[in-house]
Amino acid sequence: MEAHSRAPLFQAVASETPSRRSVTLSFNGEALNVPPGISVAAALLMSGVERFRATPVSESPRAPYCMMGVCFECLVNIDGVPNRQSCLIEVVDGMQVHSQEGARDLQFDVPLVQVLEVQP
Ligand code: FES
């Protein structure tokens, strides 16, 4: 995994008082200790994660862009639920986060297609 391979691009403002509490979550099986009250995207970025998902077609790496719920570049799997916008979800102790790789499986049964006869 590329986390911690170099200094994270996203860091807390130096003037902020560091929190003594921390939340432990995992990303692709690696435990991360992060401050409480921040988004999953912020937690992953400040932990050095730069690849959140791969696109379904070209499998290009993606990471958060807008950090406000608009671009959908931050999609991850959280606690078994795919397509979660990590910039909008607050970290919770014990959260299991995984990167999204390629296309998602459909979570529901696709109804059978009805064939309609068209009258001339
Ligand atoms: S970073 Fe744009 S929707 Fe999450």
UniProtKB/TrEMBL annotation:
InterPro entries listed in its UniProt record: 2Fe-2S-bd_N, 2Fe-2S_ferredoxin-like_sf
GO molecular function, one term: iron-sulfur cluster binding
SUPFAM superfamilies per record: 2Fe-2S ferredoxin-like
Keywords per UniProt: Oxidoreductase
The keyword Oxidoreductase appears for this protein: yes
Gene3D superfamilies noted in UniProt: 2Fe-2S iron-sulphur cluster binding domain, sarcosine oxidase, alpha subunit, N-terminal domain
Protein name: NAD(FAD)-dependent dehydrogenase
Lineage: Bacteria, Pseudomonadati, Pseudomonadota, Gammaproteobacteria, Pseudomonadales
